[in-house]
Amino acid sequence: MMAKKIILIASLLICVHVMAGNGLQAEVASRVQAVKSLSGSFKQQRSISVLPLLLLSEGSFEYTRANGMIWQTMAPVESIVTITSSGIDVGDGSSQTVGSAHVAAALLGVFSGRFDLLKEQFTIDAKGDAAEWQLELRPKSALVAEQIVSISISGRQAIDTVVVSEANGDTSSISLVTETITTDK
Amino acid sequence: MQTGRFSWVAFVWIVILITCTTYSFIKIQSGRGFDSNIFSLIPDQLIPVANPIVREQLRQQAERHFIILVKGRDQASGLMLAKKLKKSLSTVNDISLDTVDAQLEASIRTFFKPFRHQLLSVRMRNILTNSSVEEIVLQSLEELYSPIRPYSLYGYDEDPFNLGGQWLQANFTGKQRVSTTEIPSIKDDEGNWYLVSAQLKRSPYDLGLQLRLSSALSLYRQHHPSAELLTSGLIFHAIEGSQIAQKEVSTVGLGSLLAIIVLVVSVFRSIQSLLFMLCVLGCSTVVALSSTWLVFGQVHIVTLAFGSTLLGLAADYCFHFLVKMRALGHAKKTRKILFKGLLVSAVSSILAYLAQMFSPFPGLQQFAIFVSSGLAAACVTVLLLGGALPTTVPNPVPLGVAYNRFFKPLYLKIVHFRCSVLLALLLFVIIAVHTVIQRGANDDVRLLNTSGKQLLSTEKRVRALLGSHSVQRYFLIEGKSREGVLQKAEVLDDVFGRRSEQSSGGMLISSAAVIPSILRQKSDYRLIKEKIYSKRGAAALLCERLGSDCAWLQPPASFRPVTLSEELPPIVKMLYPMEALVKQNTAVIFLKGATEKDKAWANDIQLPGVRYIDQVQNLSVILMGSRQQVSWLLAGFMVCLALAGTILFGSRVIVIIGAVTISCLAALLFSAPMGVTLFHVLALLLVIGIAVDAAVFFITPGLDRNTWSASSLACVTSVVAFGLLSFSGVPLLNQFGKVVFFGLVTAWLVIPIFHHLVTTSHEKNKSKGKVSG
Q: B179: which chain A residues are within 8 Å (Cβ-Cβ)?
C-alpha cells in the first residue's frame, strides 16, 4: 500500500515537473520567437581533452530572423561562419561534418525559438523559470550521440551561455553578451 | 490410318497428356513456374560485360534495393509510422532492412583509423598540395577557435588536421543527404520524410516475394491510412507489371474462352461439340505449358498473355472439324478428308513458329515453343478425338447459308472487275508501303514499360529528394590487376573532377574511393608526412602556435597499405556494393547529378580500359537489333513459304502470298501510327501464321460454305482475343493485339477474294485450253 502511494506521488511529481518543463519551454520559445534581430559579442573557452591548455577566442555574433546567424571570430585568428536553415557556410565552400551541423542547427533552433525543429534531434529538458532558464539538449539518435553528449543553453532575457560537450571529451563554452536586440513588440 | 493404329496412338497420347498435366500441376504448386521479368524476354546484352560475376553484381545492384519514404501528418506521427512500417517489413521473408546505426558507423571509423595518414579526400589533397604550411596551420586554427568547429571523427592527438575525418566524411558520413535522426529523414516543402530502405534476398521478379511485399504494404496502408508513402525500386515496378500481366492473361484467356463457348453453343447447339472444343483447348494449353517449362524452366507472364491467343488458333481446328462433320454426317470420314489439310496447316504454322527459335530473342523463342507445341497438341487431339465423336449433332445454325447467299455472290461480283481489283490492291500496297516507310521505326525503351504514371512520378520524386544516382549509367573499368583498375579509376576521377570544377557538373561514385590504389595511398602518405609531420611541417608549427610541446601528437606509423585483403566492415559493402567487383579486376563508377551535357561528355571520354555504359541507350539498341533480326526472319520465312507453297499448291500459292502481304501491310498501316516497333513485327508472325492457316484450308479441302463457316468462326474467336489485347495498358501487349486484330480482319476479307481471283483465272485458262483443244 505504502509502495503504491510512493509510486503515485513520484508519478505526480514527474508529471508536474514535465508539465512545468513544457510550460517553460513554451514561454522561452515565445519570448525568443519575438526577437527580430540580435547582436553582440562572445567569448569562447574550448577544452580539447588531449591538450593541456584552454583555447580562448572571442568575436561577435549577429542573428536576424530572415538571414540566420553570423559568427565572426576576431582573436586569436579571424574567421567567419554563417548558419542558415539550409546549412553552414565557412567561406571556403567546404561542407561541415555531421557533428558540427547538429551543433549549428541546435544554436539556430534556440535563437529562432523553433523548438519543434530541435525536438527532431534532441530531447529537451527545461529547468529554472522565465527569468533565468536552462535548456539541456540530449541527442535522440545514437548516431548523433556518438558525437555530441549534450548541449546546454542558459539565459535570461536572451541567451547567455552555450556549453557543448562532445563524446570525445572535448567541451566548448560560449558566453554571449547581447548588445542590441529588436523585437516584434 | 487404320482404327487399330489410331487406338494405339490415342493410348500414347493419353499417357502424354497425363504426364503433362501432372508436371504442370507440380510446377504451379512449386510457385516458381512463372517469370515476370520483362528483361528476360530480350537478349541478355543489356549489361555488355563478359564476366558473369560482374554482370550478376551489376544486375543485383539495379534490382535488389528498394526505398520507401514515409510521411505522417506531422513529424511525430511520421516517425511513428516509419517505425511501424519497419516493423511490418521486418516480418516479410527474403527482405533485409538496412540499418545504419552508431555501431556500424563506429566500425568504419575503427577500420580506417590505422590508415588515416594515407587517405586524403580530394579537397584535402588539393589543400596540402597547393597551400603552404602556414596556410594549412592558419586554416586549422580558424577551425579550432571557431564556435562551430568541424567535428573531428578521430581524437585531436590522432588526427589534429582532421584528414581522416574529412576522408570519411567525403566517402561515407557526408555521402547521404538524409539527416541522422532516429530513423534517417529528409525534409522538403511538405515536411519530413522518413527513410526505410531494404535489400531483397531474391530477384524482384520472384512472384512469391512480390506477393509477400505487396500484401504487407497493402495491410500497412489499410491500418495506417494517414501514412503517405513514396516508393522507389525495381520491385515496385515488377509488382505492377505482374499485376497488369496477370490481369491481361485472365482478360484475354477468359474473353477467348467465353467467345468460343458462346459461339459453339449458339452455332452448334450441342454439348458434345462444346466438350470436344474444351477438351482440345485444355489439352493444347497443358501441352504448351509443359513444353515451355521443360525447355525454359519458367513460363513468362507475357508469354502467357500472348499464348492466350493459342486458344483462338486451337479452336480453328475444332471449327473446321465440326463444320465439315456436320456437312458429311460422319466423324471418321471427316477425319479422313481433313487429315491432309489439318496436318499441312498445323505443320506450316508450327514450322513458322519454330523458325523463331533461331532468333536470339528469348521471348520469341519461348512464345514459339508455347504456341507450336500447343498447336501440335490441338491438331493431334482434334484428329484423335474428332474421329470418335458421335455423328448425331443436333441441328446446327446453317452459317454456310450466309456464304452461299451473300458472301459468295459478293466475292464473285468483286472478282468480275478483275483488273480494277488488282489495280486497287496494287495501289493499296504502294500507299501502305510508302506510309510505313515514312513513319519509320520506333525503338523507344518505353515500349517495355509496364509501370503506371503514378509509380514513375514517385520514383522520380524519391530520386530527386535523396539525390540518388542512376544505376543505368556508369563507367566500367576492366584491367589485368586490381591495382591497374584502381589507378585507372583514379585517373577518371581526376579527369571528371577537373571538368566538374569548370562546369559544376555531376560527381562520380567510385568503388575506388573506398580503397584507393597503393600508388595513391603511397603518394598521399608522402604528402601528409612532408606537409604535416616533417620537422618544418604543419604539425610542428601548430604546436608552436598553440604553445604546446607536441608530446600529445601521434605521428604516422610506417606505411602499410590498406588492401582488399582487409575485412571491410559490412556498412562499407552496403554503401559501396560495387566494391566487391574490384576483386574481379573491374571497377564500376556511377555518375551522380550529371546533366545531359555531362552524360554526352562521358560517352565521348577516351581513356584506355574505360568504357561508358548507358543501359537505357543499350536497351534501345537491343530493341533495334531485335526488330531488324525479326524482320529478316520474317522476310526469310516469306521466301520459304513462297517456295514450299509453290511446290505444294502450284500457282495457287498466290492466294497465300497475296493474303499474307495485304494482311501484314494493313495491320502495320492501321496499328503503327508512331512507327514500326519490334512488337509490331513480332505480331506480324502471328498474322502470317493465321492467314496461312486459313488460306491453306481454302486451297485444300477448298473454299466452300463449310470451310468459310469454320474460318469465320475461328476468325471471330481470334478477333475477340486480340481485340481484348488491343485494349491493354501495356504498350507491347497493346501493339501486339492491334496488329493481329487488323491483320486477321483483313485476312478474313481478302483470302476469299484472292481465292476467287486465282480460281476464276484457272477456270478461264482451262476453258481457253478446251476451246483451243
A: 120-121
pLDDT band at B4, cuts 50/70/90?
low
Residue B761 belongs to what domain range? Answer: 3-30+239-446+619-772
Alpha-carbon distance A14 to A147, whole Å? 29
Element of type H or E holding B97: strand B95-97
- Residue B90 has a CB neighbour count (10 Å cut-off) of 12
Residue B648 lies in a domain: yes
ipTM, 2 dp:
0.84
Q: Is B49 helix (H, G, I), strand (E, B) or coil?
A: coil
CA-CA distance, B684 to A124, in Å (whole number)? Answer: 71
In terms of C-beta density within 10 A (0-12 exposed, 13-18 middle, 19 or more buried), how is residue B742 classed? buried
User: Which of B146, B181, B552 is closest, CB to CB, to A51?
Assistant: B552
In a domain, B709, yes or no: yes
> In the block, which residue shows the cell 465440326?
B322
Mean pLDDT on B47-67: 81
Nearest to B286 by CA among B514, B26, B662, B585: B26
For residue B137 the three cell numbers come to: 596551420
The continuous run of DSSP H or E covering B499 comes out as helix B482-503
Distance CA A181, CA B540 (A): 44
Q: Using CA atoms, how far apart are residues A150 and B121, in angstroms rounded to an integer? A: 29
How many CB atoms sit inside 10 A of residue B636's CB? 12
Amino acid at B765: N
Query: pLDDT value at position B446?
Result: 67
Of A42, A44, A97, the CB nearest to B174: A97
Residues B241-281 have pLDDT tens digits of 888 777 777 777 787 778 778 877 888 778 888 889 899 98
Answer whether residue B646 is part of any domain.
yes
Report helix, strand or coil for B197. strand
The grid coordinates listed for B743 are 491483320
Q: Taking each helix axis as running N to C, give the angle between helix B418-439 and helix B653-671, from 0 to 180 degrees, rounded to the nearest 10.
A: 40
Domain boundary assignment for chain A: 2-183
Which is more confident, A110 or B118? B118
The DSSP bridge partners found for residue A43 are A58, A175
Contact call for B146 and A120, based on CB within 8 A: no
Contact B436, B668 (CB under 8 A): yes
Of all residues in chain B, the one with the smallest CA distance to A78 is B142
Closest partner residue to A97 among B151, B156, B185, by Cβ? B151
Beta strands in chain A (DSSP E): 35-47, 54-64, 68-75, 79-84, 87-89, 122-128, 133-139, 148-155, 159-166, 171-183
**For chain A, the helix, strand and coil percentages under 3-state DSSP, each to the nearest 5:** 30, 45, 25
B583 and B514 in contact (C-beta within 8 Å)?
Answer: no
The greatest distance separating any two alpha carbons of chain A, rounded to the nearest whole angstrom, comes to 66
- Report the chain A residue with the minimal C-alpha distance to residue B144: A55
Q: Is the dihedral of CA B649, B654, B660, B661 positive or negative?
A: positive
Cα distance between residue B293 and residue B565, in whole Å: 43
Query: Which uninterrupted H or E stretch holds B67?
Result: strand B65-71
Closest chain B CA to residue A121: B181
Q: Does any domain span residue B178?
A: no
| N-terminal to C-terminal alpha carbon distance within chain B | 41
Fill in the DSSP letter of residue B39: G
| Minimum-distance CB partner of B102 among A55, A79, A145 | A145
Percent of chain B with pLDDT over 70: 88
Q: State whether A143 and B105 contact (CB < 8 Å).
A: yes
**Interface contact A52, partner B, CB < 8 A:** yes
Q: What φ, ψ does residue A174 adopt, rounded to 5°?
A: -115, 125
Contact A179, A40 (CB under 8 A): yes
Which residues in chain B have Cβ-Cβ distances shorter than 8 Å to A146? 102, 105-106
CATH class given for the domain over A2-183: mainly beta
In B624-707, the DSSP E strands lie at none
